[in-house]
């Protein structure tokens, strides 16, 4: 399956990789800031603790420092704006409707499962289940697949962490994402929007197959009684 990674599954699609890298880029800076703040706090607490000061000691009473006030307002603002811009660029890359796709699949969420319409009469019904693995959504490897999301009843959210970010499947409104997987395998996901009592059963399994295996699979789907 997706592999046991301590944080997130190893990304297998470029957009999953982009999200992973964005997450790491922000987290590493956040961890450095956190450690710096904690270290400074610890230093102040130990260095200026009451027991090492003379009795009745009152620290210097400083009121306002315009430079500092402006500095510590602007610095966090700059950091937050940078994170917003950085994430926004990544989101644009992952969720804009692409036009150079090699394949289009319409993914629609319902209570409680997913349908994958390949546009050639073949529809994979991935009905939700709590007990067993659901029917996989099969894609060919090395193929840029455009995903068009819809909801048929309430809002669902398609999320396979190794492949892409959460994409809402909304009634009456189409959302887009895409995937491109270069290795055969299976990856798991879940509906990520609470959508009713069967929400937990809405597993997602994406299976990538090499083109020849995919063609054989597709031929079998076409031949299957509807
Ligand atoms: Cu759902």
What's this model, at a glance?
With 226 residues, the protein is of the alpha+beta class. It has two domains: 14-95, Helix Hairpins (Orthogonal Bundle); 103-223, Sandwich (Immunoglobulin-like). 34% of the residues lie in helices and 24% in strands.
Q: How would you portray this structure in words?
A:
- About 35% of the residues lie in helices and about 25% in strands.
- The strands form 2 sheets. Strands 3-2-1-5-8 form a 5-stranded mixed sheet, with no helix packed on it. Strands 4-10-9-6-7 form a 5-stranded mixed sheet.
- It has about 230 residues and is of the alpha+beta class.
- The longest helix is centred in the first third of the chain and has 34 residues.
- Helix 1 packs antiparallel against helix 2.
- It folds into 2 domains: about 80 residues, Helix Hairpins; about 120 residues, Sandwich (Immunoglobulin-like).
- The protein binds copper (II) ion.
Write the layout of secondary structure elements.
Layout: H1 14-47, H2 66-95, E1 103-110, E2 113-117, E3 123-127, E4 137-140, E5 145-151, E6 156-159, E7 167-169, E8 175-179, E9 185-191, E10 203-209, H3 211-223
Parallel strand pairs: 1-5, 4-10
Antiparallel strand pairs: 1-2, 2-3, 5-8, 6-7, 6-9, 9-10
Copper (II) ion is lined by residues 109, 156, 191, 193, 195, 199, 202.
